What we know:
Blueprint: H1 8-23, E1 29-37, E2 45-46, E3 52-53, E4 56-68, E5 74-87, H2 105-108, H3 124-135, H4 140-144, E6 148-149, E7 158-159, H5 162-165, H6 173-185, E8 187-188, E9 195-203, E10 213-223, E11 229-240, E12 243-244, E13 249-250, H7 261-264, H8 280-291, H9 296-300, E14 304-305, E15 314-315, H10 318-321, H11 329-340
Antiparallel strand pairs: 1-4, 1-8, 2-3, 4-5, 6-7, 9-10, 10-11, 12-13, 14-15
Amino acid sequence: MKRAALPLLVLVTVLALAISSSAKGEPVKLGLGHVTSIAKSQGLTVDASGKAVPPMAQADSVIAAVAFDKDGRIVHVNLDTAQTKINFNRDWTISTDITVPGQTKKELGDAYGMRRASSIGKEWFEQIAEFEKWMVGKTVDEVKALKVKERDAAHPAVPDVPELTSSVTITVQDYIAAVEKAWENAVPVKAGGKSLGFGHDISLASSKPGAPQVDTTLAATLFDDEGKVVGVVLDVIQSKIPYDTKTSQLAVDPKAPILSKKELKDNYGMRRASAIGKEWYEQAVELEKWMIGKTAAEIQNLKVKQRDASHVAVPDVPELTSLVTITVEKYLAALGEAYNGAN
Length: 343
C-alpha cells in the first residue's frame, strides 16, 4: 500500500524538532567556573546623621556549572550566585549567626526579593532560568558576543537582544565570565551524561572577630540515566576578609581576585603539611575519580573516620586511604544536593 505523504506543516514541524534535538549534543566535557569578589565589604563608616556604622564583610560568588559537547556548545548550564554577608558589632564581635549555612539566590527563590523592584515583574531565579535557556546550544564565543547595554552604574551589562529584553534585566557580565572559566577548566567525562546537577555548601563557621571567612564548597556533576556519576568537578572558594581592628578598615585590597583551591593549586600550601605529600587539588582529583560510576547514595555511604577535630570524615577505604586525607563530608553533601537538583 502506498503511504500517504505527510502534510507540509507536519513535515516542517518534524524537521524543526529533529534539528532542535540534534543541536543539543552529547556532553563530552564538564566545567565549573566562578567569579568571586569581596569588593562590597566595608570598614567602619559614618552615616549622614554622624552615626557610626559597624563594618560589614560580603563575599559574592557567581558560579557556573556547564556541560559542553564535542563542538564546544553548551548542552547543560546551571548558574547561581552566593551573596554572603557577615556583620559586626562595634567591639568586633560578630552579630551574624555564623552557624547558619549561607544560601544562594536560587535557594532563596522569591525570598530574594527582586520581583517588587523588577521592571518586568520577574524574580532573580526566573530571569537566570531564561538566561540559561538562551545559552544552550551556543559556544562560549557566541555567549561572549551577546549584545549588552548599561542600564545604570550597578547594571553595566544588561542583555540588549530581542529574545532576552523582556525576560532578563539583570546585569550578566559575571555569569558570562564564569561560563568562560568553566570552559577553560573543563575536563573530559564518560559517555551517557543526561542531567547536570550543581550542589554547594556555604559556611561562615571559620569566621572570627575581625577575620570573617566564607567557605563555599562546590560540586558540578553529570549523571547518566541510572543516576550514576559520569563526570564531577569539586572545588572550594575560601573568601577571607581580614580587618585592621585598630583602624576598623579592611586589611586587604577588596578588589584583589579571590581564587579557589583548584585555581591556587600548589600555592594553596597543603603539600608540606600533608601526610601523603599531596596538594589539595591532587587529592580532590582522586576523590572525583573514585566517584565516577557510582550513584549519589553509594558516594554518600563512603566509609570515613575522624582523624582529628578538623578532619571528622576522612575516607577509610583501601582505594582512597593513600590518596585522600582531607575531610570529605561537605563534598559528599554537595554531590547529594547536585543529584537532587539535577535536570
